[in-house]
Amino acid sequence: MNSALVMQSGGCTHVLNRSLYGIASEFAKTGSGTLYGAPNGLEGILRDRVVNLSAVSHEHWMSVAGAPGAAIGSTRRRLRDDDVEPVFEYLDRLGIRYWFIIGGNDSAETGHTLQARADETGYDLSVINVPKTIDNDLVLTDHCPGYGSAARFVATAVVGSGLDAEALTGASPITILEVMGRDAGWLAAASALARREERDPPHLVYVPEMLVDEDQFVADVQDAYTRYGYAVAVVSENARTADGIIGAESDPWFVDDFGHEYYDGPARYLAALVSRSLGVRARYEKPGTIQRSLVWAASESDVREAEMAGRTAVTAALGGMRDVIVTLEREESTAYKCRTGFAPLDQVGGKVRPMPEEYLSPSDNFVTDAFIEYLKPLAGDIPHFRRLM
Fold first, then answer.
1. Cis ω before 266 (30° cut-off from 0)
2. Is 51 left (phi over 0), alpha (psi -120 to 50) or beta?
3. Over the stretch 5-14, which tens digit does the pLDDT of each residue have?
4. SS3 162
5. Residue 19, exposed/middle/buried by CB under 10 A (0-12, 13-18, 19+)?
6. Contact 146, 306 (CB under 8 A)
7. Cα distances (angstroms) measured from residue 13 to each of 7, 63, 342
8. Which alpha helices (H) appear in 58-135, and where do they start and end?
């Protein structure tokens, strides 16, 4: 009873496999039993499928660790009551004592449920979660592995789309960029990192933490267009008015296993609204999963900290810890430094951390300097290009 199981859960990130590598590499050092991977998480376990990660060579791991996606497959399947018995029978058959779950707040909820059931039945199991989410909305941590790289992508994308809109001031001078972020605006806010001068994009940022008035939105876009000859607005996928998500139909087009609702999003609706109101062409962009998978966007700190979180999880498990998630804690120093800590799973699972008020500037639909200073070391340098005119 000294083997371990690892699974990846939820949406993928640039560095999800780096945490997986950190777990595998650190567990190999311990000389314990076998490290198994659960293909597509709970789905693989319930189908009697695992992969022997201890048999993977170091050379192979070097290629896998830097890849986007989830090397052993991810899942959005919720743990159900009738899953528990077959899951624990399978764990016992493999001699699993440690279970590492790489995921976000839904995964933390799953981890805590598994630990509680193990304790109830007397099964000797240590569940340790490793944080992962581009949404950056886990509580009790400074930031999350995956966020810095996705933030870097968004900020860089705004540079390019902004220069494109600025070049086409007579044809399509307005761009609305919709980015991921189901309940919190951390990723949309990251677009502000690209701005160096007043005329630089983005000119407006809309997040779920601040309600949007459609008439005021049009007026704000028009103001930026009048000032600079073009306008770029960035909106979270679930940006809201007082009546609900912008542009959403009465019913979502999909609801996942955890009850999360998915809508078409606001960008297309807002672009049409601006085009009709101002009489100019407004384009909309919705990058989709490329936000969390474009390899070159991975930030150095994100790569480093994702692996560190995986290694810390192994050390914690073998040291007797259980029912916790690894956290990232920013040290108070002139230069950016990050260390790991821990938080109880029952205090993280199912909870969402919105952006704090001190990071938002509702009066001008933007973010504060405090947020930019928070984000800089997580995303790294963003390219800046000079203008001829």
1. no
2. beta
3. 999 999 999 9
4. helix
5. buried
6. yes
7. 14, 16, 21
8. 58-65, 84-94, 105-121
Beta bridge partners of 8: 102
Instruction: Please report where in the chains the tokens 């995956």 appear, as a residue.
Output: 146
Q: Residues 48, 81, 135, 243: which is the catalytic one?
A: 135
Q: How far apart are CA 385 and CA 130, in angstroms?
A: 37
* Alpha carbons 38 and 70: distance in angstroms, whole number: 11
Tokens for 174?
């307005």
The vertex-146 CA angle with 352 and 72, nearest 5°, equals 105
pLDDT digits (tens, 9 = 90+) for 82-137: 988 999 999 999 999 999 999 999 899 999 999 999 999 999 999 999 999 999 99
* Contacts with 208 (C-beta within 8 Å, 6 or more apart), sequence order: 181, 183, 184, 185, 236, 238, 239, 240, 354
**Residue 189, pLDDT above cutoff 80:** yes
CA-to-CA distance for 340 and 143, rounded, in angstroms? 11
Q: How many residues does the chain have?
A: 389
Question: Is residue 213 annotated as a catalytic residue, yes or no?
Answer: no
| Model confidence at 253: pLDDT above 60 | no
The closest alpha carbon to 176, from 236, 245, 218, 233, belongs to 233
What tens digit of pLDDT does each residue of 37-79 get? Answer: 999 999 999 999 999 999 999 999 999 999 999 999 998 888 8
Residue 244 is predicted with a pLDDT of: 80
Report residue 249 as tokens. Answer: 């139909």
CA distance 275 to 171: 12
Model pTM?
0.93
In Å, what is the CA distance from 228 to each residue of 122, 134, 165, 212, 264? Answer: 66, 31, 11, 22, 30
Distance from C-alpha of 88 to C-alpha of 14, rounded to nearest angstrom: 31
Distances 20 to 38, 53, 97, 258, 272 between C-alpha atoms, Å: 12, 10, 18, 24, 43
DSSP class of residue 78 equals P
pLDDT at 255: 61
**Average of pLDDT values for 225-232?**
96
DSSP three-state, residue 35: strand
